[in-house]
Amino acid sequence: MHFDLIDVYQPRPSLIHRLDPRVKLIGAVLIILTAVMLPDDGWPSFVLLLLFLVTLSWSSGLGWSFTVRRAFVAIPFVLAALPLPFLTPGRVIWVVPGLGWTMTAAGLTRFLAILLRTWLAVQAGVLLSATTSAPDLLWGLRALGMPRLLVGVVGFMLRYIFVLADEALRMLRARSARSPKLADTQRPGLVWQGRVAGMMVGSFFLRSLERSERVYAAMASRGYAGEIRLLAPPLMKRSDWIALSLLSVSLLAPITLALGS
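The chain above was modelled as a monomer; its predicted structure follows.
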């Protein structure tokens, strides 16, 4: 099995790509923690952290806007915080006509801060996944002490999710071939569609379970003992330690700016 179909890794001849996976994992966590630690009204600090991420994206050979564009996928998930401007007490800045809902300055500030934090955190994750291959990421997680079972589950999910997707497509194709109602011009009723979908989900679960048993038996017969081992795991070089130190020092700038403002 290969990661080619789902791996978002973008190979480039950059220093960031050549860094140890542990350095990039720790760096992504530090960036996310920095975004979380910034105060709600620390707009200059948010801008500085954004410029830092954009610079990292450019230096990795991915371009200025690579992480910025791909991080917009997180915006729909922030809609859960949309009621905050209307539920947070404070100075009223706008009243919804006809409804009487009041938007406060503190609530709007809180919502925008959550939006920026999420956007910056996703940018860090995008940069990490684009500069580190999936096998290196899994090895780095295990080297940093993540439980072996959790790393194994994530690894198998990455390896076989496209196999399950292909199985689902085959089941849909078979349903279309064996269902005269789908060939009619009249759309089937919701009750019929729900009944068929329920049977398909059950069948898909059983097929996935059987396939997982066969895969595990094949791996156990080849010496699999709970984790994938590398013949020559990478070692931390001087450049890795220097890069981690520079990253840690650089992240102190937005925190210091927020504290001083």
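The longest helix spans residues 190-221.
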